[in-house]
Amino acid sequence: MHIVVIGAGALGAYFGGRFEEAGAKVTFLVRKKRAEQIQNHGLDIKSTKGDYAIKNPKIVTNASEIDAADLVFLSVKGYHLKGAMDDVKQLVEKGANVLPVLNGIEHVSVLQEQLGRDAVLGGLCFIIATLNNKGHVEHSSAFHNLVFGPLEPAQTTICNQLEELSKQANIKMIHSKAISLELWKKYMYITAFSGITTATNLPIGPICDYKETFYVAEMILQEMKRLANKYEVELTDVDVEKAKKNFMNLNRDATSSMHQDRRKNLTLEVDHLHGGALRLAKAKGLELPFTEAVYGLIKPFENA
Ligand SMILES: NC(=O)C1=CN([C@@H]2O[C@H](COP(=O)(O)OP(=O)(O)OC[C@H]3O[C@@H](n4cnc5c(N)ncnc54)[C@H](OP(=O)(O)O)[C@@H]3O)[C@@H](O)[C@H]2O)C=CC1
Ligand SMILES: CC(C)(CO)C(=O)C(=O)O
Fold this sequence. Notes:
Elements: E1 2-6, H1 10-21, E2 25-29, H2 32-41, E3 43-47, E4 52-54, E5 58-60, E6 71-74, H3 81-93, E7 97-100, H4 106-115, E8 122-131, E9 137-149, H5 156-166, E10 172-175, H6 179-200, H7 204-209, H8 211-230, H9 237-249, H10 257-263, H11 270-283, H12 289-298
Parallel strand pairs: 1-2, 1-6, 2-5, 3-9, 6-7, 9-10
Antiparallel strand pairs: 3-4, 8-9
Helix pairs in contact: 3-4, 6-8, 6-9, 6-10, 6-12, 8-9, 11-12
Domain Ketopantoate reductase N-terminal: 3-152
EC number: 1.1.1.169
Family: Belongs to the ketopantoate reductase family.
């Protein structure tokens, strides 16, 4: 199986490395600066689940250098989707399916419109990972899950191929038969988690200590559940309660990737996540006052 990773950042380098370790052929399609960094320092993974060094990582800077691929593992940030689209398109024209693992939901319909519905699988990840100053991956969470599944019947074969690969892979890969529901569950969770941690500039511990602050996160979960319901996705109060429990069970210093990006003064995905929710709500005549307030609080920190 030939997998092209577009976006060899924390997620792309981690999962790409694990795919290679499991026996897949992996090509990293990167931009010039990242290509130089990988050439100079290699592509190593330091992980709670076992370290791995990718020997001679295959890197290219343009899709025209690739003859054909089975899958594009798309792990750019939401604000880089447009810039990556030409390369993704070229690979789809050469026969690849696309597995986007970005947080959020708007990118799914953007990709479907640009590439055709049959090309785009559903995907999401649970992991806490970041790149260090050498561009190596530091994976710090006890979990490293990749959930994938078909959004169209034509995707059965590629999903089965991924399931086969999962048998050899040092990651938890879950082949979901209800991937739209899983995408919305994660969207609900991450909008509340990244919203409250980034807006307060605090990890989850102190947020749980103050019921008034936790209440804001809970209200965002409720709003996102109502938004999902408007799009005929059956999120329920049980899902909201599970997300709340999960917040309370996290390590006190656990935080979102968006909050980590705020700490590092990097560009934030707030328009893709919270802005996206507000656009989807407006299209259905729904108001999301807590989500909108948190969006407003994060906005001044959006641009690096
Ligand atoms: N990090 C985490 O723990 C988690 C992240 N996520 C989600 O996963 C997605 C990716 O996040 P993360 O891996 O942290 O982000 P990173 O910023 O670490 O990685 C994104 C990578 O995309 C690259 N990129 C951007 N545009 C292009 C392009 N046109 N062609 C090739 N490469 C490109 C960037 O390269 P360059 O160096 O050139 O800028 C960068 O290396 C986000 O949506 C995030 O919310 C989800 C779960 C956990
Ligand atoms: C919540 C978490 C860590 C789960 O993967 C995440 O997706 C993020 O912070 O971006």
